[in-house]
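Hello,

Our lab assistant flagged a job as stuck in the queue for most of the afternoon. It eventually completed. Since we weren't sure the result was trustworthy after the delay, we are filing this so someone can double-check. Below is the sequence as submitted and the structure that was eventually returned. Let us know if re-running is recommended.
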Amino acid sequence: PAQIAQRRQEALEYVQCLRRHGINVPDPAASGLRVGIVKALSNIDVDSPAFKKANTACSSLLPARIG
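-- returned structure --
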């Protein structure tokens, strides 16, 4: 449970960072963080220069293992 809570917090910090960098992305779902992050990004053009720049700035916040 503690690891799941930590991963959720890291995932939230990642999407909050993306938002600070101008990417309008919702919070990931509480359960199944991998699916939640993928779903949160599903309407985002991940090939856009804006996303790539934000992702580079925020990628260190993304949990190494999500699931």
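-- support follow-up --
The delay was a queue issue, not a problem with the job. The result is valid. The chain has a mean pLDDT of 83. The radius of gyration is 11 Å.
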